Amino acid sequence: MRYISTTIAIMLAMIYLTGCQQKPSGQATSEHQPSTPTKTQYLTIGTGGVTGVYFPVGGAIAKLINSANTGINITVESTGGSVFNAISMGNGQLDLGMTQSDVAYQAYHGEGEFEGKAIESLRVLFSLHPEPMHLIARRDANITRVTDLAGKKVNLGNPGSGTLNFANAILAAYGMSEDDLGKAEFLKASEAPDFLRDGRIDAFFYPAGVGNAAVQDICTTTDVVLIPIMDDAAETLIRENPYYAKSVIPPGIYNSVDEPVPTVGVKALFSTTTRISEETAYTIVKTVLDNFEAFKAAHGALASLEPANLLEAIPIDLHPGSERAFKEAGLIGEKQSTPAEDSTATPE
């Protein structure tokens, strides 16, 4: 009996000592211990077609965040483009997305494609590269200005893309619509060059970073011209819409383009919604700023960016977490509640 009592006493003492070594539930282990993520947060980013710029740029951002051990893991999806991404962020199917500045503005304000369907929760994390509109035509199609597209076979962009949205806005600025074309095509950006090369279309619209591979290819393999989009109609389009800006496609980038080609441009934006927490948005933006050289080196479209460029031409509100990260980096003053006021800054 004494043996049993002694054994019980020893067991009770061990239980007591073990209990003393454990922290009460919910108590921090140490105020000086770094807060390592205990649970991974999985997010999805919508980009664009696999041959465009959005897909690899989105992939570069995801790779940077995923490798930083922040507790955030981003998966990249190839999608129909800006309009699809904005809608999908609005309904919760996507957490993050690449959007053109015009699409972001219209989605937030319920205009154009989004009339009566405003996505007021849409926010911007940061701005990316400028996207001048490339209007590319076969030389033998005798197209020298936008109005020459009347009666021609023209690709405007696939449904759900920012390309289609932008192309229709340009046509409207010149008093035209799809009905004025000989035939309107709605192809993906990856399909349009082959259609032009084969003579199945006469021209196509493509807003893209200067030096885009698909544009490089068609300019090298086919006798084409880049059509300028800068006259009174284009000036009016820019003046009336804060998300468009004057832009220039410089000479020497594409084969046979020997002079600057003035055009209208937008900015690519990395966007999200208020559904994403301030801490998550802050972590994403801070990680990019802290690893900016690696970010620039990830894709050619990002190579010329500087940190201040991430605040250019943003036509809607920054996410609060993004604003916090930029303030900490000294890129936004404490009294500023919004990013760059000049949303019509000319892309570089």
Characterise the protein shown here.
The structure is a single chain. The protein has 348 residues and is an alpha/beta fold. The protein folds into two domains: 42-129 and 267-328, D-Maltodextrin-Binding Protein, domain 2; 132-266, Periplasmic binding protein-like II (D-Maltodextrin-Binding Protein, domain 2), CATH 3.40.190. Helices cover 33% and strands 19% of the residues. It has helices at residues 2-21, 54-66, 82-90, 101-109, 162-173, 192-197, 213-221, 232-240, 278-290, 292-297, 320-328; strands at residues 41-46, 72-77, 96-100, 122-138, 153-155, 183-185, 203-207, 224-226, 245-249, 261-273. Strands 1, 2, 3, 4, 5, 6, 7, 8, 9 and 10 form a ten-stranded mixed sheet that branches.
What is the element layout, followed by pairings?
Elements: H1 2-21, E1 41-46, H2 54-66, E2 72-77, H3 82-90, E3 96-100, H4 101-109, E4 122-138, E5 153-155, H5 162-173, E6 183-185, H6 192-197, E7 203-207, H7 213-221, E8 224-226, H8 232-240, E9 245-249, E10 261-273, H9 278-290, H10 292-297, H11 320-328
Parallel strand pairs: 1-2, 1-3, 5-6, 5-7
Antiparallel strand pairs: 3-10, 4-7, 4-8, 4-10, 9-10
State the gist of this model:
The protein is α/β, with parallel strands linked by helices.
Give descriptors for this structure.
2 domains; D-Maltodextrin-Binding Protein, domain 2; disordered C terminus; 348 residues; ten-stranded mixed β-sheet
| Name given to the CATH homologous superfamily of the largest domain | Periplasmic binding protein-like II
Relative helix content: 25-40%
Question: What is the CATH domain class of the largest domain?
Answer: Alpha Beta
CATH architecture of the largest domain: 3-Layer(aba) Sandwich
The succession of helices and strands, N to C, reads HEHEHEHEEHEHEHEHEEHHH
Give the helix tally: 11
- Overall tally of structural domains: 2
Let me know the average pLDDT.
Answer: 87
Gross geometry: globular
Question: What's the assembly state of these chains?
Answer: single chain
Strands, total number: 10
